[in-house]
Design a protein that fits this description.
Number of domains: 3
Structural class: alpha/beta
Number of helices: 21
CATH architecture of the largest domain: 3-Layer(aba) Sandwich
Radius of gyration: 21 Å
CATH topology of the largest domain: Rossmann fold
Order of helices and strands: EHEHEHHEHHHHHEHHHHHHHHEHEHHHE
Mean pLDDT: 92
Oligomer: single chain
């Protein structure tokens, strides 16, 4: 029986570093089918994707992925813990996954597993130091980093070296730890594998050679042009972006939504803003006061602190836009995904779909309308799908071209099929 490998992606946009990950995955698990769960139109950094989920799914299939599942927006917009948990639970619900393969700066699964085990059940000293660090106004990753340093200096034993603790809080390592913690909570074993991230790092805005970060790729596209990234992006990904841009469906940026966001902040009461995920400790008052700013960039600059990083603030802004409340995310983080939304597959992936139906634990959705009309669809699943439809309907309003903001795209777009 062939093995099935799961990967978690955003492909915003798909670049050569992603191809490296896919190639290494195939080396580690030869002959395996690859299923990816991909953020839809809104990403974990609290930003709209530069091109739509359907365009990015097409690029994924050309790159060698066999099946693309959508990570619902109620997970894709969350911080690392919620994002990773939603992604792992989505992949596990297929019922066919043998392995989860993810990138990390560490590149070694053993110390990551040791760290994940330790952080999943932290000792009292670490919890105390973490609380102290958070009270200083630090973000959670920074506070945890400081707490680990303090514990190490006190002479208490860590399951990993102090030098490793110094370097663990990089973006892909943080996600790796959350994937490993999520894997512990699913009902059957999935083997984790990690691949060392090569070339440009997650937030690097410059590159050497043919591998760049997605951040650098987007920056170069927005500040220069598509040809500026042709050395670090595969030809088909470049071609797909060119088609989307030519049709007026990209590049999509956060600035496209700033008037909508500012209007919401000016209209909402502080009580309504306080219901928004990640808004704590009276932050709603600062957000309300900053609603007078002239644009989104000025708003974010005025709100940024050690605790409220730019990425966290961006997520808050789009939670507001998408009408997502704390109670919504609390529910979905408990309940998990309610369905498997298929964006695309290859001929090999189509065979996997049959296995999903037999062995999986969730209904398969290729078109949302039948799911919404089905009397057996649970209310939580209907709300999840309605949030996804709203997310797309608002996303298309950010298209830079004229006559491209029509709603209802989730009902119109067919599943993408690529023969390979």
């Amino acid at each position: 029986m062939e093995e099935v490998v799961g990967i978690v992606v955003e492909y915003n946009p798909l670049h050569n570093g992603h191809l490296y990950h896919l190639e290494k995955t195939r080396e580690l698990v030869p002959g395996a089918s690859i299923v990816c769960v991909m953020s839809g139109n809104w990403t974990q950094r609290g930003e709209p994707a530069i091109i739509s989920k359907w365009a990015r799914a097409r690029a994924a299939l050309y790159a060698g992925v066999d099946m693309v599942l959508e990570l619902p927006v109620v997970f894709s917009l969350q911080s690392a813990e919620g994002f990773a948990s939603g992604a792992v639970r989505t992949l596990a619900a297929t019922g066919v996954l043998d392995t989860l393969c993810f990138g990390s700066e560490a590149g070694d699964i053993v110390p990551l597993q040791e760290a994940a085990e330790y952080l999943d059940s932290p000792p009292p000293q670490l919890r105390e130091e973490l609380y102290k660090a958070l009270k200083k106004g630090l973000s959670y990753p920074a506070a945890l980093h400081l707490a680990l340093q303090t514990v190490a200096r006190s002479g208490s034993a860590l399951p990993f070296s102090p030098s490793y603790a110094e370097n663990i809080f990089t973006p892909n390592n943080i996600l790796a730890l959350e994937y490993l913690k999520a894997l512990k909570r699913i009902p059957y074993p999935i083997t984790p594998l990690t691949i060392r991230r090569e070339g440009a790092q997650f937030h690097d805005e410059k590159w050497k050679g043919n591998i760049a970060s997605a951040t650098a790729v987007r920056k170069a596209i927005l500040e220069k042009s598509l040809p500026a990234v042709q050395k670090v992006v595969p030809p088909y990904s470049l071609e797909i972006m060119a088609e989307e841009f030519e049709a007026g469906r990209g590049p999509v940026t956060s600035a496209s939504y700033e008037k909508m966001i500012l209007s919401l902040i000016r209209r909402f009461s502080t009580e309504e803003i306080a219901e928004t995920p990640e808004v704590i400790e009276g932050m709603e008052y600062r957000i309300k006061r900053s609603g007078i700013k002239e644009n989104l960039e000025a708003l974010l600059r005025s709100l940024k602190t050690k605790r409220y990083t730019r990425t966290r603030l961006q997520r808050i802004m789009f939670y507001l836009l998408l009408s997502l409340k704390k109670k919504d995310l609390e529910y979905y983080n408990r309940a998990g995904p309610h369905y498997l939304r298929v964006l695309g597959f290859t001929d090999r992936g189509e065979k996997l779909l049959k296995k999903f139906k037999k062995q999986g634990s969730l209904p398969i959705v290729t078109r949302p309308a039948p799911y919404l009309k089905d009397s057996l669809s649970p209310p939580g699943g209907v709300r999840m799908m309605e949030s996804e439809i709203l997310a797309t309907d608002l996303y298309v309003l950010g298209f830079p071209g004229g006559n491209t903001g029509r709603g209802g795209e989730d009902f119109q777009q067919p599943v993408i099929k690529v023969e390979r």
